[in-house]
TrEMBL record:
Keyword annotations of the record: Cytoplasm, Gluconeogenesis, Glycolysis, Isomerase
Protein name in UniProt: Triosephosphate isomerase
EC number(s) per entry: 5.3.1.1
Highest taxon of the lineage: Bacteria
PROSITE patterns recorded: TIM_1 (PS00171), TIM_2 (PS51440)
Lineage of producing organism: Bacteria, Pseudomonadati, Pseudomonadota, Alphaproteobacteria, Rhodobacterales
Broad class of where this protein is predominantly found: cytoplasm
């Protein structure tokens, strides 16, 4: 059975003052049944690792380079993330595909680097609104899955996150039937049937339970609602109850 995971992506948000939210989250959810992961900006990984020491909270990065070291100014490697306390890394988020022109081939190379460093790669896929309107959702999502996922991916080293681009940060979510259609197709296509499938895109305390009730949704990749301990804690509780 795939592992349940509530993953928070802080994106380019968070200063040291915001570490209080992490302390509050650990206090609110000391013994979650599901995996709980926070992916902060790289600047907060080490202080978060110190706070999370002895708790069940997992930490992750938001991107990594394809190499483990070298002359790549401004980049960060999977080995560095692991050294700072990360167990996971988000790869191929639509914001990186759009802002940095990342291709699925590059995402696959980054995923191999993550695996080599012992990290679990959270590989993101998702269609734009124009692609959905053109009836291309499954073609786009399954194509990204095929091209972004290393052949050696297993449930032990890979998680897939379905994030419709038009639902990210907009307050709009697909219908439950639309989420189910994509997740059912992903389940049939992943190289290991035990790989966890996360939904992401405007997940909030108010809609989490309905999304988590879907058969092939094993958790969520949460942006805005992961920044506040109270909201993310409610989403974790909904996943534990599903
Ligand atoms: O990585 C998280 C997703 O992009 C979702 O962000 P959101 O929950 O703010 O819509």
């Amino acid at each position: 059975m795939p592992c349940k995971l509530a993953a928070g992506n802080w994106k380019m948000n968070g200063l040291r003052a915001d570490l209080e939210e992490l302390r509050a989250l650990i206090a609110a959810q000391p013994e979650p049944d599901c995996g709980v992961l926070i992916c902060p900006p790289a600047t907060l990984l080490a202080p978060m690792a110190a706070i999370a020491d002895g708790s069940r909270l997992l930490l992750g990065g938001q991107d990594c380079h394809t190499g483990q070291s070298g002359a790549h100014t401004g980049d960060i490697s999977a080995a560095m993330l692991a050294d700072a306390g990360a167990r996971h890394v988000i790869l191929g988020h639509s914001e990186r595909r759009a802002d940095h022109g990342e291709s699925s081939d590059l995402v696959a190379a980054k995923a191999r680097a993550a695996h080599d460093a012992g990290l679990t790669a959270i590989i993101c896929v998702g269609e734009t609104e124009a692609e959905r309107d053109a009836g291309r959702t499954l073609d786009v999502v399954l194509g990204q899955l095929r091209d972004s996922t290393p052949k050696a991916a297993t449930a032990a080293n890979t998680v897939i996150a379905y994030e419709p681009v038009w639902a990210i940060g907009t307050g709009r979510t697909p219908t439950l039937a639309q989420i189910a259609e994509v997740h059912d197709a992903l389940r049939a296509a992943v190289p290991d049937a035990e790989i966890s499938l996360l939904y992401g895109g405007s997940v909030k305390p108010g809609n989490a339970a309905d999304i988590f009730a879907l058969a092939n949704v094993d958790g969520a990749l949460v942006g805005g609602a992961s920044l506040k301990a109270a909201d993310f804690s409610a989403i974790i509780a909904a996943l534990d109850a599903a």
